[in-house]
């Protein structure tokens, strides 16, 4: 059975622009695909993170802020 891709966030490493993509189907439309250049600063330095990567990142940040315990 086809499964839609998991949501993911694309972030520009130069200016901080970000957008989350959440395809609703396994059939991807052009608007479901990330850009190759940042729409704000035109930088090609884009990073993609899956939802689980974001959750892990938030968890690690909270551990740093609140301490390990």
Structural description of this entry:
The relative contact order is 0.24. The model has no long low-confidence stretch (mean pLDDT 85). The chain contains 1 helix and 3 strands. By secondary structure, it is α+β, with helices and mostly antiparallel strands. Strand 1 (8-12) and strand 2 (18-21) form a beta hairpin. It is 23% helix and 20% strand. It has one helix at residues 51-66; strands at residues 8-12, 18-21, 46-50. The longest helix has 16 residues, at 51-66. The termini are far apart. A 3-stranded antiparallel beta sheet has the order 2-1-3.
Question: Would you spell out the secondary-structure blueprint of this structure?
Answer:
Layout: E1 8-12, E2 18-21, E3 46-50, H1 51-66
Antiparallel strand pairs: 1-2, 1-3
Strand element count: 3
Mean of the pLDDT scores? 85
**What is the rounded Rg?**
15 Å
Q: In whole angstroms, how far apart are the ends?
A: 42 Å
Unreliable spans:
none
Q: What structural class is derived from the secondary structure elements?
A: alpha+beta
- Shape summary: flat
Instruction: Quickly count the helices.
Output: 1
The helical percent reads 10-25%
Strand content: 15-25%
Report the sheet with the most strands, covering strand number, pairing sense and barrel closure: 3 strands, antiparallel
Question: Could you give the order of the helices and strands?
Answer: EEEH
Strands of the biggest beta sheet: in what spatial order? 2-1-3
């Amino acid at each position: 059975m086809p499964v839609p891709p998991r949501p993911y966030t694309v972030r520009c490493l130069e200016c901080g622009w970000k957008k989350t993509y959440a395809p609703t189907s396994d059939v991807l439309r052009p608007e479901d695909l990330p850009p190759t250049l940042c729409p704000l600063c035109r930088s090609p330095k884009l990073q993609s993170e899956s939802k689980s990567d974001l959750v892990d990142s938030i968890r690690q940040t909270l551990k740093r802020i609140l301490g390990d315990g």
